[in-house]
Amino acid sequence: MGKELLRKSTTQDLELMLDLARATATHLGKPEQSPFCSDVVETATGKRLVRRLNAVRREFDPSSHAEVRAIRAATKKLKNISLKGYTLLTTCEPCPMCMATALWAGVDRVVYGATIDDAAKHCNQIYIYAKDMIKKSDLTCEVTGPVARKECVAIFEDPRMQEMIKNWRQKKPAPRK
Question: Can you give the pTM of this predicted structure?
Fold first, then answer.
């Protein structure tokens, strides 16, 4: 089975996550708003390669989670399916689909903000945690989180996001541009 490598967050992790949370919050009140946003950064330097928001409703694609979109964009940009040497940062702990994608892409690390339990207070979740995905695989990845949890949870709790989440629950269509 995979090795669960837990690591305490670094100052760089905190700075990168705070930047990601601030960037995510700039979309509040806009049609593309989402509490889920991800960066792929160089592990050694923290230099951002790509950033993506969740686009499930906009793209009518249940797999268009921020993490999957960021990994897809990063591998296309690099023209390589391996993201060895890169870290996935995400405003919320990855769901099983997103964590599996990160593992298959071979990212060095996953750093997350809000937890699955935090997200579940606002929207549906599958309760398989990132560290449990690693335990059930033969792949290795460091998991660090929560980092800047308060700031990431605040995105879910913003009144504009709460209105959007209410519409999600009522299965209302995504707003048109």
Answer: 0.91
